[in-house]
Amino acid sequence: MTATATSTANLRALLHGLPGVDKVGVEARAAALGTRSVKTTAKAKAIDLAIRMVDLTTLEGADTPGKVRALSAKALRPDPADPSCPPVAAVCVYPSMVPVAVSVVAGSGVHVASVATAFPSGQAPLDVKLADTRDAVAAGADEIDMVISRGAFLAGDYAKVFDEIVAVKEACGGAHLKVILETGELGTYDNVRRASWLAMMAGADFIKTSTGKVPVAATLPVTLIMLEAVRDFRAQHGRQVGVKPAGGIRTTKDAIKYLVLINETVGDDWLSPDWFRFGASSLLNDLLMQRTKLATGHYAGPDYFTLD
Question: Active-site residues: which are they?
Fold first, then answer.
């Protein structure tokens, strides 16, 4: 589907024709899956998989080149004392910090992701958003995390949101595009489903829950809805799209709940860093602490791993 082939009326009919979300049902299923236990051997594999799925992120106004270099080095060797510990999936930074991250991880297989399109509000003219995207890609980012215009979406101007995603996808060139829905601002589960489908139809490679800059970020029910959306989209259109919950995922216990959710909702096809990511900073340290506990029988000291 192209931008010229769409209209707000057509998109409204399609999106509002999606099945409604059973709020009680989705919350009950997410809660039930969140109680599943994982045994020791499986837990060790789950921890390493979760580490490989982390987009190690710093998106603060006080970010410095030194901080980004240190974070990038940690992305490569999360536990310097244990070479068997896998690297993370990506380092996620502001566009101005992309060259710093690239200088550390280039050639390693660790991706450099950059937020763009007037992150986190998305409130900027389209030409500004496109310039932001092109600059980040030119600097070496191979993944772009864009934010949708939530105001336009909530006002029912679906064609504007669709067209912006299409334009940003084109500006990405060969870089993968993650589309941030900012689910905490969408108001309803039905809107989460609609925004997920809208982003995928416009060309998103990933759909992402949140910027991490609003009070309500990733939740299990919202991620369940997004996983169902990517499953159903692939069944209908033959294209697989990834999912990235971000914001508020801080513990190994949290991460394993999401891995169970993937396994029970969409299956092994999405149990890979190619198709599922955690947008996080503090999560990695807890994963490393639990990994050390499984290997040695005791927890590392609180200052054993670097603080991010």
Answer: 145, 208, 244
